[in-house]
């Protein structure tokens, strides 16, 4: 006796819990692998899963078994040239000695499986990348200064556009109106009919033909009026009402500001780019919509597209305040802080005209910081800090938690610096 | 759907897609043929699943339900990786020793594969599960699914009560010992979920009482009265020393479950669950060659019969032969594809040869198998299937002809010799020795170290001493330390392991490591 069961519709992620348990158990290993990978990955392919390898010995499940050595007899197939009593040099490497499971044999092809490899999904990968990080000031914009609205349902109204018509409610209204309007007419009609009947049943001698004609006319008139009651009328129509409700902004804009003066090499830019990219991915997980604005500067600032931002070269001196000024203008023109969450990431090698750094600080403290959610500054330099760093330090002191700065010396630092900037802080 | 009397051209028109109607049709045809060959099976529950579900099933080592543990997640990830790379094709073996016998068909498979899997799993493996003495002795097919459900629920209740980490640590430790969780010489009691739940609570209290009696801190008088634990599990050695256990115990998990001093009742129950799982898989570990050989032989025979009876066409039979050939391929030892002896190949070759010896014996066969030559092949087949395991099956039935065909040879690798030596090849002088060596290779007692509980020092420092009987000077692998660490976690006190050669201790392991010397 046999029967078939179609299980295809059943759940398919029976192993999901076990998979999570495994990832949980080897968090440390996986995190290390993820960190390496983030630092080495080319910029464009952050958005895929990652193949993770963990040394096999770290995750082995030990059991009592035989080790190498002693006396082993191993039977293998495929003998070609050996005869009994042949003595052969012991193959170097793995396979000799048998591993006690009857495999391994005399060949040294023991395909060394000493790494356990598996693939993280993109979601899992990013979970590990951003594990323990949080966006500072993620609390949504206060409702007061918000002009962003969202339509929500707010009952039923008599006015509206046809697209929002509530058919059920409209028909119900019409039905009620029809009953109400026809009732007196129907009553009158019934009375008239009863009278007519009465009149007709009278003895032919007593009948009043004028009365009959009058009643017949009355009945006709009433029937016409009943038929004239409209099936549906404009009064009946009801519409779903929508009200505009202010809502926290779900949009963010990320400004990438970078120094492209002669002192910034391509290596510097690569580091900066990775940093921007990490920030972008991170924001993307928290906001529904993200816009990017690229501002580059040397002595003058310019808004450019991504390609130009990262790859075209300029030379010349450096005036950081030019970029901050442009930033201010762009915010003013396109991103009213009431609607947008504003993030700025700035990368530079720390060079600036000496007297410009003070201007920068003033610009930040007086105009920009009030409107920004977060300002992250990374200085990519192995050298000692210059005036800009010191001035920014003062800004950091003035706006703790909103302004952060770190130094990156080489590519390997990016991830740790990023983590440092966005480390989960206990609520103050 | 095709009528069974349909002529072959109709069958050809079917293509490679399947429907439940065609599956039913072929299932019935296979059942008819299987009955002719006296294949006695449990009822079949054939489940059609997707490839993802198949990966899930693989990952839970073929248990339809299992408790949660990271090691199954690891299994899943490696299966998934292999599948993505396109390395995993075969879904033959996913059949569960239960009543009804559950087998899986993957929806992506072609009609040929579905027929093949039904013949292989639902009639081959299924009849093996029902007939083989090891399975009959060690597993209870009617109860296993219920028991698995019980185990899963119990483990997750423990996770809720005591935390996932505590349960995970315990399971890790038990898994490390699960190969030593079987009494080889006793018929185990059958497992059943209903009784299990009923008895579980009384067992908890009873067990704990027993353990308490054993570990009571007040020593009983030397001439122990009848209620003293000496009467139950300990004995006095000839020198008058108290010895517990009175005889060495090979079932480490059972010993732990009953005697570990510090385990809580729920922990003992979890140990028991792992032990029962180990017992369930015990026959499978010992009958791989036979089981696969048997199933492969029958799918081969049944497919050919279907073709001969006109039920399947040329297209399907050719597709089948192509698949079958790769299943029973045996790469030579020096091939890059070599990965040990292929149990499908060896088992199939042996069963095929048994049939040949019965039907058309040569003089050589009459010399080697005087009783078998010329006998009824089907009788001999069922006898072989029912009464052997890999070790004894090879010992009994590996014919010179199969040795020649596979060109088997034995290598002696002695670490005291700087060269390795060819001990025997496929010639007259070698057949017997090759056969013996191969048989030993499948012997569980040689594959796994022989380790037994020797002594629990209940009167002294409570340390537990195990003994490893060294065989052919083969030492223990370094994994011995992590395993001892797990054992220590279960036992709660120092754990020692002595490697014995004859009566001499050649190596002594201990956990925690002895303080005075960092002996490794």
Low-confidence stretches of chain B: 1-10, 219-232, 516-520
Number of helices of chain A: 12
- Approximately how much beta-strand content do the residues of chain A carry? 15-25%
Cα(first) to Cα(last) distance of chain A is 69 Å
Tell me the name of the CATH class of the largest domain in chain A: Alpha Beta
Largest sheet of chain A: 6 strands, mixed
Number of domains of chain A: 3
CATH architectural group of the largest domain in chain A:
3-Layer(aba) Sandwich
Say how many strands of chain A there are: 13
Number of helices of chain B: 21
Task: Tally the beta strands of chain B.
Answer: 11
Key features?
heterodimer; A: 428 residues; alpha/beta; Rossmann fold; 3 domains; 39% helix; B: 520 residues; alpha+beta; 4-stranded mixed beta sheet; 11 strands; UPF0229 (chain A); vWFA_dom_sf (chain A); UPF0229 protein OQ287_01120 (chain A)
What does this structure look like?
The complex is a heterodimer of chains A (428) and B (520). By secondary structure, chain A is of the alpha/beta class. Chain A folds into 3 domains: 12-57 and 114-129, no CATH class; 162-241; 251-422, von Willebrand factor, type A domain (Rossmann fold, 3-Layer(aba) Sandwich). Chain A has helices at 16-25, 27-40, 56-59, 122-129, 167-201, 209-228, 266-286, 306-311, 320-334, 356-368, 387-398, 414-422, and strands at residues 2-6, 50-55, 71-76, 87-89, 115-120, 149-157, 239-246, 251-259, 289-297, 301-304, 341-348, 374-380, 403-408. The two termini of chain A are 69 Å apart. In chain A, 29% of the residues are buried. The model of chain A is unreliable at 94-113 (pLDDT under 50). In chain B, 52% of the residues lie in helices and 11% in strands. Chain B is α+β, with helices and mostly antiparallel strands and 520 residues long. In chain B, a hairpin with a 2-residue loop joins strand 10 and strand 11 (504-511). Chain B has helices at 8-12, 20-36, 51-59, 70-84, 111-131, 133-138, 144-162, 164-176, 193-215, 252-259, 265-286, 288-308, 314-327, 343-359, 363-368, 377-387, 390-397, 400-406, 431-441, 444-447, 480-491; strands at residues 44-49, 95-96, 101-106, 235-236, 242-243, 409-414, 419-424, 450-456, 464-469, 495-501, 504-511. Among the domains of chain B are: 8-132 and 287-321, no CATH class; 328-445, no CATH class; 446-511, no CATH class. In chain B, helix 5 packs across helix 13, helix 8 crosses helix 21 (480-491) and helix 9 (193-215) packs across helix 11. Chains A and B meet through strand 1, helix 1, strand 3, strand 4 and strand 5 of A and helix 2, strand 1, helix 3, helix 4 and helix 8 of B. Strand 4 of chain A pairs antiparallel with strand 7 of chain B, so a sheet runs across the interface. Chain A: It comes from Larsenimonas rhizosphaerae. Chain A: Belongs to the UPF0229 family.
